[in-house]
Give the backbone structure.
Amino acid sequence: MKEKKQNSLISAGIKLSVLTLISRVLGLIREMTRAAFLGTTGYADAFGIAFQIPNLFRRLFAENSVSVAFIPTFRNYIEDSELPDGKKNAQDFLSATFTLVSFLTAAITVLGIILAPRIVPFFLAKGDTPAITETALLTRIMFPYLFVISIAAFFQGILNSMNIFSPSGFTPILFNIIVISATYLLSRTTGNPARAMSIGVTAGGCVQALFQLPFVIKTGWKIPLTTLKKAFSNKGTRKVLALVGPTIIGMSAYQLNIVVSTSLAGKAGTGILSSLQYSLRLQELILGVFAVSIGTVMLPDLTGLVKRQQWKEFNRMLTEAIKIIALITIPITFYSLISGREIISLVYQSKKFTEQSVELTFEAFRWHIAGLFFIALNRIVAPAFYAQRNTKSPTLAGTIGVGVNILLAILLVIPLKGGGIALALSAASLANSILLFVFLKQTATIDVEGVVKSSVLYTVKIVLFSAVAAVPSYFLRPYIIRLFSGHNRLISAGGPVLVLGIIFAASGILLLVLSKDPIAQTISGRIAKKIKKADERSTI
């Protein structure tokens, strides 16, 4: 039984990671489609700004509210559902929360559509009337995405609270397919690929919500609307609002951070904003597959461990998750620093994405990837606070990190342009990680010293292993690039990416095998068992 519990994080993480991997790959293809149709032109920047505006509110109403407040609260209702009136209380809570989310996001969506022409000028250079007009139109097309994706996040919260992850993991796949298809099918009709892509975004959000609805109904929970009076007076929703309340300041600071960064990039020159977004998409491919998946799986389990006061198991799960993240992100960081330019060329360079676009994107990417481990670490450690209904500490850490980010972005954007904004994000993520552990130490029930000591020692080991594994690839890189040069993009860029990746991976795996790394053995063993079970089923 204990062994099954120890493997639950890795097992559930692997299942969700497979779906997330597919969705992130499709997300990358979506960005490749955008790069091919828009490149780093003004239209690309217009789409980037227009999509960013409703996305700011999405992070507040969807991601933040669900992970910070809804899941821990609903999880407690589920734990108490066997008590008298427990089921009814849980049902009333769901109805009240659904009403609250629907009302707030609908109101903001309507306001956003009306005020779009007044919001957009903050992100663009003064006097650029055509860009402002086009960006405002795209913003109006995509603002309904906020409403439908918030409903989708609410459905995801219900399913994740009951340890059902696959339907929610599959919806981004549908979203990306719809956006990609809309770009190709509607570009001629709209006369502008950016408009076609915007229509796809809103349509994709609708599908994300509708797809999860049957799975929610299957759980037995109902989601009818109730009155606003009941929604705001419900004990559960008041608890959610109390949990979200402290994060509003932090999230407002986070939104301010995005607003400032987007504004700085939009005014730094044509293509800077879109190059930053292309770079972030590559980074998010890794974060989404591993950090978000593990964090999503961890939160319900950590909440249950807190309720049962099983702190030893809590510490073990947190430490294991941090080590998994180190094992994945640190080697990827070293390899990306060596082969980043070729990776960007392979993924994006076509049609309107020129050699200049490659250089702009690589300038941002090398600084973004330097902070990969710390950004992933923040998404793993934060659930340790949320599971204990402590939203103030991660909010304060995030707020300070945001301040660091804004200050550094303002200072570095002039000398380094897009690279300066990317560097500011990585530095702020480091500051945020340090603060999270400082605040975690104030929790008497968690053995923070043990978690930090074990995690730091393992992280240092992986850094050393990655540095050693990078040496052959670093020195062989010029020769391998020359070997594949003079061919089409797939060969001239893909060849070095593949060969250098094989050399780096072989060196790293050899070091892990020789050192008998326990985390690598656990992951490989779990994968081997899955493959064995699949083979057994296929032979039956």
In short: The chain has a mean pLDDT of 84. The two ends are 27 Å apart (CA to CA). The longest helix spans residues 42-79. Residues 76 and 153 are 19 Å apart (CA to CA).
